[in-house]
Design a protein that fits this description.
Elements lengths: L1 E2 L1 E4 L15 H14 L3 E6 L4 H13 L4 E7 L2 H11 L7 E6 L2 H8 L3 H18 L3 E6 L6 H13 L4 E6 L6 H14 L7 E6 L6 H10 L4 E4 L13 H10 L1 H4 L1 E2 L7 H12 L20 H9 L19 E3 L5 H10 L6 H17 L3 E2 H12 L7 E8 L7 E7 L5 E7 L3 H13 L4 E9 L8 E9 L2 E9 L2 H20 L1 E3 L2 E3 L8
Parallel strand pairs: 1-10, 2-3, 2-9, 3-4, 4-5, 5-6, 6-7, 7-8, 8-9
Antiparallel strand pairs: 11-12, 13-14, 14-15, 16-17, 17-18, 19-20
Helix pairs in contact: 1-2, 1-11, 2-3, 3-5, 5-6, 6-7, 7-8, 14-15, 16-17
The protein binds 3-methyl-2-oxobutanoic acid and zinc ion.
Length: 519
């Protein structure tokens, strides 16, 4: 069976999503999961765009040995050289160069002629080729470009050594049949196309990214670029899980294979959601909370009799954990560790101890501890940040006839216990104001969401927030059976990320952030 190469761009185009912010360690954590998932290529960042991106590519290239590691580069010499610098330690390095190809971009943005663009494309591929064999080229905004010009560019870059040519639907403009025709046109009209892999990269502005990708594959594309949970610029990119499960579930139609271990999909999806702070809509295909839930009586009856009546995929095939009761307050550290391993988590001893402590505290308040509760407990460990200030104590008084008041105590970087209190419009506002009085770093709360992890009155509440400081967004996550405590934890989490990016604080004095430290 023919194989479709899965090129994951969660760490590059996915991280370009407004409000997504991952630090270097979090990117590495995601890269490790992408490796377990079995993706063929990891686009690890845009090396020339920031020291943080450069460092993330360098670290991933050094640590993740099986898949191809690929930085993105614009078509200029400095960007190509930086891409190579960042990826040269990889076992399987690739460089991905892009340059606009539509007349709209050429005349309004780049102000260059078609001839100039063609020459830049050719010469930058040739430049990258001096460093390594595996070079990919993308004519940006290809779906709004003249197809004949796209054929010419592709022929030139393949001649210059491009081994993959990627067709981006940069603004999510294409319609499946039309996109399929473009792919067919390329296969029929680019004389040397057999010397390169034909790839596609679709955005979801019209909700057609997955449909366009699958149609392109049906017409002959053999690499697809996609992201976990479909995150990415604007409305996002084609979702990896939907494409992969589409190919697998309808193998009768496509007759194509991928190297993805689909049982790792759920874990990858949760990790990306936890680390980016983008929650997954309940009706999201494959990994949404309702994707395998049957509400109507007729459907439930059918599924109980034979799942195939209303289920086209087995939830276990995408790694969705059964929400059965697994642990209780009587469970020991060993049982907890075993369950974590079954769920795919390997924590350091210290992280395991902290998670176990949190599990015990939760088990005191909640009788039934499900897999989802455990995931929530562990998620705090995955958000790897240096805790500059830690939350020691929080208390609120509120009600319909009282002024919401909060008292908080934080432990400062030098171990001092700092307490303060504040009034607010509500209990969360009061807590955030009290914390601000201690930490004193200006920021604006731009998003606050709270949701319960499982059903039931004793469920864990998970709070996701975004704060903004100097135009940069920082996410925070906190979980607790008490949503005020969860809110305080989320705020501390976001503030610590802000402080880590801006510099550390010792006795109220900032020192500058270390080189390459990302958000
Ligand atoms: O959408 C796009 O055109 C891109 C390119 C850089 C491939 O992301
Ligand atoms: Zn893109």
């Amino acid at each position: 069976m023919d194989k479709v190469i899965i090129f994951d761009t969660t760490l590059r185009d996915g991280e370009q999503a407004a409000g997504a912010s991952l630090n270097t360690q979090e990117k590495l954590e995601i890269a490790k999961q992408l490796d377990k998932l079995g993706v063929d290529v990891i686009e690890a960042g845009f090396s020339a765009s920031s020291p943080g991106d450069f460092e993330a590519v360098r670290l991933i290239a050094q640590e993740i040995r099986r898949p191809i590691i690929c930085p993105l580069a614009s078509a200029d010499a400095t960007a190509v050289d930086k891409a190579w610098e960042s990826v040269k330690g990889a076992t399987h390095p690739r460089i991905h160069i892009f340059l606009s190809a539509s007349d709209i971009h050429l005349s309004y943005q780049l102000r260059k002629s078609r001839e100039e663009i063609l020459e830049m494309s050719r010469s930058m591929v040739a430049r990258a080729k001096k460093y390594l064999d595996d070079v990919e080229f993308s004519p940006m905004d290809a779906t709004r470009a003249d197809p004949v010009y796209i054929y010419q560019i592709l022929e030139a870059v393949i001649d210059a050594g491009a081994t993959t040519v990627n067709i981006p639907d940069t603004v999510g403009y294409a319609i499946p049949r039309e996109f399929g025709d473009l792919i067919q046109g390329i296969l029929d009209n680019v004389p040397n196309i057999n010397k390169a892999v034909l790839s596609v990269h679709c955005h979801n502005d019209l909700g057609l990214a997955v449909a366009n990708s699958l149609e392109a594959i049906r017409r002959g594309a053999r690499q697809v670029e996609c992201t976990i949970n479909g995150i990415g610029e604007r409305a996002g990119n084609a979702s990896l899980e939907e494409i992969v499960m589409g190919l697998k579930t309808r193998q009768d139609f496509f007759n194509l294979a991928t190297s993805i271990d689909t049982t790792q999909i759920y874990r990858a999806s949760r990790l990306v959601s936890d680390l980016t702070g983008f929650s997954i809509q309940p009706n999201k295909a494959i990994i949404g909370a309702n994707a395998f839930r049957h509400q109507s009586g007729i459907h439930q009856d059918g599924v109980l009799k034979k799942p195939i009546t209303y289920e086209i995929m087995d939830p276990r095939s995408v790694g969705i954990p059964s929400s059965t009761l697994v642990l209780s307050k009587l469970s020991g550290r060993h049982g907890f560790k075993e369950r974590l391993a079954e769920l795919g988590y390997t924590l350091s001893e210290e992280a395991l101890n902290r998670s176990f402590q949190r599990f015990k505290e939760l088990a005191d308040k909640k009788k039934e501890i499900t897999d989802r509760d455990i995931e929530s407990v562990v998620a705090e460990e995955l958000r790897t940040i240096t805790e500059i200030y830690s939350l020691d104590y929080v208390e609120v008084s509120c009600g319909d006839h009282s002024l919401p008041t909060a008292t908080v105590r934080l432990i400062s970087p030098d171990g001092q216990s700092l307490a303060d209190a504040a009034l607010g419009t509500g209990p969360v506002d009061a807590v955030y104001k009290a914390i601000n009085r201690i930490v004193g770093i200006p920021n604006k709360l731009i998003e606050f969401t709270v949701k319960s992890v499982t059903e039931g009155i004793d469920a864990i509440g998970e709070v996701l927030i975004r704060i903004e400081s100097d135009g940069v967004t920082y996410t925070g996550r906190g979980a607790s059976t008490d949503i005020i405590v969860a809110s305080a934890k989320a705020y501390m989490n976001a503030l610590n990320r802000l402080l880590a990016a801006k510099g550390t604080v010792t006795r109220g004095i900032y020192s500058s952030p270390s080189k390459g430290e990302a958000r």
